[in-house]
Amino acid sequence: MAAMSRFHWHRVFHAVTGETRLAQIGASVAINYDNPDATPEAQLRSFAGGEFQGGPTPDGLGDATIAAGRVAVLTYKGPYAGISAAYHSLFGNWLPEAGEEPAEAPCCEIYLNNPREVAPEELLTEICLPLK
Fold first, then answer.
1. % of the chain at pLDDT higher than 90
2. Would residue 21 be called left, alpha or beta, if left means φ above 0 and alpha means ψ between -120 and 50 degrees?
3. pLDDT per position in the chain (132 positions), as tens?
4. Which pTM was predicted?
5. Which domains are assigned to the chain?
6. For a disulfide at 39, which of 15, 34, 54, 77, Cβ 3.0-4.6 Å?
7. Through-space distance between the first and last CA atoms of the chain, rounded to whole angstroms
């Protein structure tokens, strides 16, 4: 999944930097449509991008919408390579203990700081799990 995410991020930044629109991107986000524990890596689907605040979507990029509703938010601190442990804790521990059920909607990640400016151990990511 990491290779797919890097490709998507490359497309996003190429499209906006060529048009000097990088400053118009708010929070960086990823939407993960598949469970990496149940889906072969080559078939994983994700959407990577950012909240574009500068008018119409730049050429070469698409739009995605995150549905409104109840969500559980887990803030993960650490390198992106270790984020799967946070997902396992959210789904395997918190969800059953809280008596909640996941909604039929993808999880998303909101990246709270920049990996070019912060050490991997200090990266903060909000994992948002839609709930029924």
1. 47
2. alpha
3. 333 344 454 555 555 555 545 555 667 888 999 888 888 988 988 888 777 666 677 677 777 878 789 999 999 999 999 999 999 999 999 999 999 999 999 999 999 998 889 999 999 999 999 999
4. 0.78
5. 1-65 (no CATH), 67-132 (3.20.80.10)
6. 34
7. 26
Q: Write the DSSP string, 6-45.
A: HHHHHHHHHHHHTTT-GGGEEEEEEEE-S-TTTS-GGG--
Q: How far apart are CA 20 and CA 58, in angstroms?
A: 11
Contacts for 84-93: CB closer than 8 Å, 24+ residues apart = 84/36, 86/125, 86/127, 87/127, 90/127, 90/129, 91/129
Write out the two tokens for 128.
């948002």
